Amino acid sequence: MEPAQKLRIANPDAARLNGDALQAMGARRLADAKRLLQEGLALDSSYAPLWLNLAAIQRAENDFGGALASVEAALKLDPLAFPALLMRGALLDAQGLRGQAAVAYSIALIRLPPLEQLDEGMRRAVERAQAVSTAVGAELGAHLDGTIRREIGSGSAAPVRRMNHFLDHLSGRRRPVWPQPTSFFYPGLAALEFYDRERFPWFEMVEQSTDAIRDELLAVLRAEEAGAGELEPYMQRGDDEPVQQFAELNKNLKWSAYHFAFEGRLYHEHRRACPKTAAMLDQVPFPTLQNRSPAALFSILKPHTHIPPHNGAGNVRLLCHLPLILPPGCGIRVGNSVREWRMGEAFVFDDTIEHEAWNDSDEVRAVLIFDIWHPDLTLEERDFIARSLVSVDSFMTDGSTP
Predict the structure, then answer these.
(1) What's 212's domain CATH number?
(2) Are residue 273 and residue 366 in the same domain, yes or no?
(3) Angle 133-94-15 (CA atoms, 0-180°, nearest 5)?
(4) Which phi and psi (to 5°) does residue 109 adopt?
(5) CA of 195: how far to CAs of 198, 227, 285, 318, 346, in Å?
(6) Which domain holds residue 304?
(7) How does pLDDT run across 37-57, given as a tens digit for each residue?
(8) pLDDT tens digits, 264-303
């Protein structure tokens, strides 16, 4: 283990001179402030505030070269200092070097602190940084569209799609996304927003079952209307559990579920009530994880309801959606990718990537959802994961191993 870095204490005389320089700058006595800063640097050239304040004065004197050199000196002392990173972009911007400024601004914005921590001048500088980065990104995107993208064209093949996504990342149209599971993470698995259907040879079987499954769903909905249904709120957090963005949907039938399996437990009565749905589900590669999977349900979203952005529990399984009732105005976003469902077409996505869904129509939207093993996992790994999670649960419950 590396030794902890010692807290550096500035030369007190240098710190005093920096304070005096700030007062002189406030009174617009820039020559005096500059002299004081230079005296401070002669005493302690490793005190970054001296360099940043000197850069501000040099900028006011239109000495952009000197100001950049001072900012770089400050960044050598603290490479992640947001004010110095932002000032570097502003100095390039002031010289009309928009491309270089956009790169510098984008590096600075990664380190952006909460806006409430910034003074008014710094907030205006941040707004300028964001505006320049957006504008230059759009110009770069148009340039790439007219050159490289024209060469590769468009299409659904995975290599072409990846190349187009790469161009979008270069221009800032897309942001990097990665799995952020809320419970557990298995390393080395592909993390894709939506997966190519060629990876799932059973898709055709699922899609051919659409009409039969929809008929069973409609019977469930008719029973619900007659007062004999068994729909339940999808979100059922306890009073002592955080609900965060799901407060509106918690214990609310605006987003309801008819479960066939939940947290590893099969709903046998629902399976008997929907035998064709159950028969289809028995043919897909369900994960078997004690107290976690499989999961399968009719997911029913009432009109004008939004499921807010969230992440799934673990990346060892993926979610499959099959649309059953699909009014216009319904969609789903996974990471950067937004799509609408299409009747008769299933798709698979990684729900540990931030995702959300909405129904902006005046009608109910219904989808069959079920989880499957991640296709990158071997049979040995599936067994290993299942046994590992059983061991975790046993330990967390009573401190012992099975």
Answers:
(1) 2.60.120.330
(2) yes
(3) 100
(4) -65, -20
(5) 8, 39, 16, 9, 11
(6) 197-398
(7) 999 999 999 999 999 999 999
(8) 999 999 999 999 999 999 999 999 999 999 999 999 999 9
Q: How much is the pLDDT for 399?
A: 55
**SS3 label, residue 20:** helix
- Position 28 in a domain: yes
- Up-side HSE of residue 297: CA atoms within 13 Å toward CB? 22
Of the residues 142, 167, 184, the one at which a domain ends: 142
Q: Which residue has the higher pLDDT, 146 or 398?
A: 146
Does one domain contain both 308 and 388?
yes
Residue with tokens 């729900």: 351
Write out the two tokens for 258.
């008819």
Token pair 């969230």 is at which residue? Answer: 310
Distance CA 27, CA 40 (A): 19
What is the separation, in whole angstroms, between the first and last Cα of the chain? 34
276, 213 contact by CB (below 8 A): yes
Say if residues 352 and 210 touch (Cβ distance below 8 Å).
no
- Whether 91 and 64 have beta carbons less than 8 Å apart is answered as yes
Q: Distance (Å, rounded) from C-alpha 349 to C-alpha 321?
A: 8
3-state secondary structure 37-50: HHHHHHHCCCCHHH
* Tally of domains within the chain: 2
